Amino acid sequence: MEFSLIALDLDGTALQADHVSFSPRLSAALLAAHRRGVAVVPITGRQFAMLPPAVPTGAEWEELCVLCNGSEVRRLADGALLDSHYMAAPLILALIDLAWRLDLPVELSAGGRLYLTGTDWERLRGIGGPLAFHLNTILSARGRAVPDLTALCREERLCFDKVNLPYLPTERRAEVEAALSALPLSFAWSSPRSIEITHREATKAQGLLRVCSLLGVDSARTLAIGDSGNDIPMLRAAGLGVAMGNAPQEVRDAAGAVTLSNAEDGAAAAVERYVLKETR
Asked: What does pTM read for this prediction?
């Protein structure tokens, strides 16, 4: 199959273990694909303000990106918003209430910030280990403690693109999934212990379809590469979904192929094999 677009997850897929950079091999592969007329679109759970130094850099291939698991489509060059699906205040209030009833920390994502109570921030610090990157890189730079989330969500100036439940005990997984399934929204496991919640029409699959429409690309000619639960809709919607070798089994099962792990430059290997038709 000849591909016209590469949909590329970032953390755990395109980014190296530092969560900051692309490998030279991947950068070269993406540039080669672009010069053959193939669009390259990062599709990530991150906000535009939280994109890593690897994106945007002014690289030739940079054009559009899908953010917050499909809540936004923006131009990489200037951040211009091209499409959005935000959550309304009543739904945010319902999620805050749910988190409080289940005694779970909750974060509201809006305007390049993550809002949470000081109490929840301290709870996350107490968990430490599995949240080290989130605490030390994301919250330290973009987090903001507020006294009252319910008052915050009524502020008209804020557009809520995502709600995070950043840490769930394993034994609460089924209970939380059942509660979220009863609400008009989309959700996905971004790690074995964290859930990202968005507007019902905001998934990575919907984001992929929207950029295909904007770029005039047939969705059947797309290659998607990802490693986490929030990538599953995108992997299924693409012409070919490729799971990283480091992906959980449910992600591999959703894909049409599996590449090498992130540590082995699996994203670059997939672009080389399926787009550039190269073998190593």
From this structure: 0.94
